[in-house]
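Take a record:
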Amino acid sequence: MSKQLVVYISATGTTRRVAQNLAKAIDADLAEIVPVPPFTAQDIDWTDPTSRASRQHADRAMRPPISASPSADGYDEIFVGYPLWWDTAPREVRTWLESHDFTGKTITTFATSSSAHAAHSASNCTIRHRTPIG
C-alpha cells in the first residue's frame, strides 16, 4: 500500500476542512503550507488591485516565502489542495512544489472556490522537471 500525504494551503479555512476530510477518508498524513505573512481577508479581495491575490495574478514569476515546507520524502502519493485565485493556485503552492523532487510520486491536485473552475488550475501548476500536475 502506498504512503499518502495531503498538503494544503488555506486562506479562509475551506480548503483546510476539505483537506482534513480527505486525509481522514484515505488515512493519509496531513500537512499545511504556511504563507508568510499569514493570509488576511484583504489578501483575497480580488477587486482590490493591491491585494495579495491580485499581485500574484499579475506576477506569474512570484514565489512568495512559506514558513513551513512539508516534506514530500517518504510518500508515494501526494494530494495538493489550494483555494483558486484567478483560476490558479496561490503562488505559495508553486514555492512548495518547486522545493521538492517528485520523481516517482503521484501528484493529485484539488481546489476550492466559490466561483472559479478547477480545471484550469492544474494546467497552470508545474513541478520540478516541468512535469504537469493534474
Remarks:
- Residues 14-26 form the longest helix (13 residues).
- The radius of gyration is 14 Å.
- The domain at 4-132 is CATH 3.40.50.360 (Rossmann fold).
